[in-house]
């Protein structure tokens, strides 16, 4: 248990950093959906590609440290820990959202995006809702 606090710190650090990317990536997509100036579009695409690669590294590290907490230290095991199953379900949805960001970026790169900036503004709210739900499950542990 001597390393437990360190594993927890790094899990929180990488989750927080991953979410920062998940909050910013859709904002870049909003701007791409509104942009008509090719040099600006290229700059936004470059930013989005770099951010997506970095976000993916952060996501993998967050998942590794989270799995270490769960499987290595037994966090959430045993009776009365239904909150963890719900959290893991939301994490799977979050991974899907991350993947969706990458798919949408590829559409912009190919010039085939069909969605409006308004759609991307709504899409941008998904990680906020997931973060709130995950925080409630982890802190309150309602079941």
What does this structure look like?
- This protein is an all-alpha fold and 143 residues long.
- 82% of the residues lie in helices and 0% in strands.
- The chain contains 5 helices and no strands.
Order of helices and strands: HHHHH
Distance, first to last CA: 25 Å
**Rounded Rg:** 17 Å
Average pLDDT over all residues? 97
Inertia-based shape: elongated
The percent range for helix content is over 70%
Major pleated sheet? none
Strand fraction band? under 5%
Overall structural class, as computed from helix and strand content, comes to: mainly alpha
Tell me the number of helical segments per DSSP (H or I, 4 or more residues long). Answer: 5
Tell how many strands the DSSP assignment holds: 0
Note poorly predicted spans.
Answer: none
Structural descriptors:
single chain, mainly alpha, 5 helices
Quick synopsis:
With 143 residues, the chain is an all-alpha fold.
Strand and helix layout:
Blueprint: H1 4-34, H2 38-72, H3 82-110, H4 117-123, H5 126-140
